[in-house]
Amino acid sequence: MSYSTVVKTELCRIRPESDCCALAEAYGLLLYSRLLSEGHDTYATETKGIADLIGETMASVCGVYADVITLPKSGRNGCKYMVKIPNSEQKKLICMRFAEAGGGILDKECCVAAFLRGVFIVCGTVTEPSRDYHLEFLAGSERRCDILADTLSRAGIRGHKLQRGDRWLLYIKGADDIISLLKKMGSVYSVQSIETTKNVRDFRNNANRLVNCDQANIDRTLSASQQQCAAIRRLIEKKGYAGIPPELREIARLRLENPEMTLRDLSENLSEPITRSGVNHRLKKLMELAENQ
């Protein structure tokens, strides 16, 4: 069973708490299954719970008893399920139910959540969170895509439109927006799953960032140390230790003997400790002297 199917199965078990939310969810289910579109009176799915939900919703909200038909999959094990509106008269009754409600179906915040739940159940998919954070709706037409984008925007979620061939879809990227949407729709399992995965991934990313930062600091220290040691050797070859100014001799010897030491380590190992900036100043002075030879 795919991750999307697990999420949809959970959402199918949620029952609207009020008549207005039941109407909004029904609108999402039927509009995005295209059962409200002219010339479309069937919807097919591989999930029995979705087919049953659409059939039950038509009966309770619209007073229409659709046929839920079980069909074998061609060349594969298992079944698929088809919801079929019996005839054109029943289709008119369904359409009239939403026409009578006018434009107020999505007036309430709770109804927006119920509508989005219905839409996701019939045309949504979500990627398993360990692979990626990606949720999308195959809206079909640009009009349905725009309605969905506007509704998501009201819920504080940004969707991105995309056209594939003659079909339009809307997708959401990013764990936070996906979690926010799933919470609004009422999915508990999927939210916990994504939040757990996100926390683990964030922890790993932070750990890797710290390791990379430490490695970068080590690389910079070693690179600087190599340049400093090379400069000190040139000075010694030209003038010997006696030719190095007295105040720079100790740091020169310490650097040659300990190329792996940081500025802090060098400062703490001097006979008279000085600040890191003081150590850095003396090393720079040694390199300047080497360049002028």
How would a textbook summarize the main sheet? 4 strands, antiparallel
Provide the low-confidence segments as ranges: none
Q: Tell me, rounded to a whole number, the average pLDDT.
A: 86
Q: Which strand order does the major sheet show?
A: 4-5-7-6
CATH third-tier fold name of the largest domain: Endonuclease I-creI
CATH homologous superfamily of the largest domain?
Homing endonucleases
What class, by secondary structure content?
Answer: alpha+beta
Strand tally is 7
Helix content: 55-70%
**In angstroms, what is the radius of gyration?**
34 Å
CATH class (first level) name of the largest domain:
Alpha Beta
With helices defined by DSSP (H or I, 4 residues minimum), what is the helix count?
A: 11
**C-alpha termini separation:** 75 Å
Globally, the shape reads rod-shaped
The helix/strand series, from N terminus to C terminus, equals HHEHEEHHEEHEEHHHHH
The CATH architecture of the largest domain: Roll
